[in-house]
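Working notes for the structural subgroup meeting. M.R. asked for a predicted model of this chain before we commit to crystallization trials. I am recording the input and output together here so anyone reviewing the notebook later can reproduce the run.

Input as submitted:
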Amino acid sequence: MLDNSNFTFKSYNTKKATISATGKINAKTVGKYKIKATLKNATGTSVTKSGKITFPQPKIKVTVKKKKAIVTWKKLKAAKGYYVYRREAKGKKYTKWKKVKNIKKNTTVKYKDSKLKKGKTYQYKVVAYNRKNKGTSAIKKIVIK
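Returned structure, recorded in token form:
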């Protein structure tokens, strides 16, 4: 393990991310950040690292009951609301994503979809959003029997 006590650290944009004296990065918002680590008592010995902080992804679960899909996910503190998307399989390909619900409150973490057809395969994803940013969930596939 690297001994970070021999380094000084600097964040170029403290609105996006800060860095502690021990080198731990604290992400404040989504976006790009740049961090510089300099070896103490050594001239010209530094490393600059850039990275990207992405919006968190809600973990989703889809269950099927009587031709209805129930999409649930864990609430994200950073989210203002969620978009629920669905697409249908057409042979080996899928249709374009269709927004089936805009959930404007972060208190709702469930969506029931009853507009499904027997024998069809669907995929769902949930996109969390706040005022400035969006993220997306993993995609879950279901088959209506």
